[in-house]
From TrEMBL:
This is Lipoprotein signal peptidase. The gene is lspA. It is found in: Cell membrane. InterPro entries: Peptidase_A8. It comes from Aliirhizobium cellulosilyticum. One of its GO terms (cellular component) is plasma membrane.
């Protein structure tokens, strides 16, 4: 892309993407709550299952022993910091703006869970017969992909002083 304004550097477009991503995340979580049995693996393909569980902490159940209010406050601070970074990032940094947009969407999706349910609804499980990854959700995926895009932007982004 040229050095011009990238779509996700525009607040309205980024806001629309965030709203759509949060609606998608919350709609899936409502479906999971309605139809997916608790703590029962529902195979999708050999290494992927749906597995409903609740996360009282943050990503990968970190800080699960902390108070709910602390976790919610931390998520609000993270959204604020990422918004601040997004606003300070030059408009030509396409991957960074896309990453910040996804991070905010994921954080807001999980923040809504914390406020409404008191926990985050997780349901995606990658596994083999001898190993399994932490159970996560679409919002966590947004955050992870967003962080990867921000890192990618730092690695390959414009180093021309912008």
């Amino acid at each position: 892309m040229t050095q011009g304004v990238t779509p996700l550097s525009r607040p309205l477009i980024a806001g629309i993407v965030i709203v759509i991503a949060v609606i998608l995340d919350q709609a899936i979580k409502l479906a999971v709550e309605a139809w997916l049995p608790m703590h029962e693996a529902v195979p999708v393909i050999p290494f992927l299952a749906l597995f409903r569980t609740y996360n009282l902490g943050v990503a990968f159940s970190l800080l699960s022993g902390m108070e709910r209010e602390f976790i919610i406050g931390m998520r609000i601070v993270i959204v604020g910091v990422v918004l601040w970074l997004w606003r300070r990032t030059p408009v030509s940094r396409t991957f960074a703006h896309a990453g910040f947009t996804l991070i905010i969407a994921g954080a807001v999706g999980n923040l809504i869970d914390g406020l409404v349910y008191g926990h985050v609804i997780d349901y995606i499980l990658f596994h083999t017969e001898t190993w399994s990854f932490a159970v996560f959700n679409l919002a966590d995926s947004f955050i992870t992909i967003g962080a990867g895009l921000v890192i990618l932007d730092e690695l390959i982004g414009s180093k021309s002083g912008d």
